[in-house]
Amino acid sequence: MRRLTLLVLLGFVGTGCQRPIEELEPKLLDEVDQSQMDLEQKVDNTEKTEEDSIENNNRDFYEDITLITNPDSYLVLVNKNNALSSSYVPGDLVVPNILNIDYRVGYNIFMRMEAAGKLEQLFQAAYTESKLTLLALSGYRSYEHQAQVYNEYVRLHGQDEADRFSARPGHSEHQTGLAIDVTSESAGRKLNPEFGNTAEGLWVKQNAHRFGYIIRYPLEREQDTGYDYEPWHLRYVGVEAATEIYENNLILEEYLGKW
Ligand SMILES: [Zn+2]
Questions:
Q1: Region 185-192: what's the mean pLDDT?
Q2: CA 235 to ligand 1 center in whole angstroms
Q3: CATH 3.30.1380.10 is the classification of domain 26-48+58-256
Q4: Cα 137–Cα 195–Cα 228 angle in degrees, nearest 5
Q5: pLDDT category of residue 11 using cuts at 50, 70 and 90
Q6: Distance 18 CA to ligand 1 centre (A)
Q7: Which residues contact 128 (CB under 8 A, 6 or more apart)?
């Protein structure tokens, strides 16, 4: 892991610095473009099960929003009803020593220190135990970056659709520095539900808890999490919590007993 100075970090993520995010994170729009086809496919698939749509939930997503008071906790609950302050930036972000989707080590990816260390162990174990290569796509995202991502999805798909797979700014776990999106060559190096059926996706599902990570948005829990199935989105909660969540098939809200 490589530690960064706060100055370098702030310059990079574009919070309060003079350089625009687009210059510093040129991958962002590519990322949006790349996932468009997958998302369009997802829309087609989900139309068939409209009755089960999260739009018919009774959880009142994005209503009665609470400002999070423990943003530095590894068990922080960030969802559609619990928001991080727009000024929150984790104080211990580092670059994990893992491959990204271009097979570059750690490029453009930041995680909180403990989560980064465990993520390195997870990637390493996938390879040494099962000869599987995981690729990371997206770790820490600033509030401003998330706003840009979300607004682009709203522009492309409309707000109702965008809300099913993209968080509004302040509501993304990526702002905690504890969430990472992973994929594999076998999933086309993309973030799509098919990743969950690849050898890499299955390994992650069965082993992530050993390293303190959970699949945050499991299959068939859309009405409770507020998000479509995301086998690629891993959230660090610590080994003890992750193991209990994995063994009892819980979502984080159930483990914490709050929504
Ligand atoms: Zn994610």
A1: 96
A2: 8
A3: yes
A4: 85
A5: very low
A6: 27
A7: none
Q: Do β-strands 66-67 and 111-112 pair in parallel, antiparallel, or remain unpaired?
A: unpaired
Asked if 145 contacts 22 with a C-beta cutoff of 8 angstroms, the reply is no
Question: Which pLDDT score, from 0 to 100, does residue 107 have?
Answer: 86
What separation in angstroms does the CA of 49 have from each of 42, 53, 104, 169? 11, 7, 39, 28
Q: Helical H runs in the chain?
A: 6-13, 21-24, 27-47, 113-130, 143-157, 159-162, 199-207, 222-225, 239-247, 252-256
90 or 259: whose pLDDT is higher? 90
230 catalytic per annotation: yes
Instruction: Say what the alpha-carbon torsion angle 190, 196, 202, 206 is, to the nearest 10 degrees.
Output: 110
Tell me the residues surrounding ligand 1 (ion) with CB < 5 Å. 181, 233
Ligand 1 center from residue 36 Cα (angstroms)? 15
Annotated catalytic residue, options 25, 31, 200, 230: 230
Structure tokens at 187: 């999933």
pLDDT digits (tens, 9 = 90+) for 154-175: 999 999 999 999 999 999 999 9
Whole-model pTM?
0.81
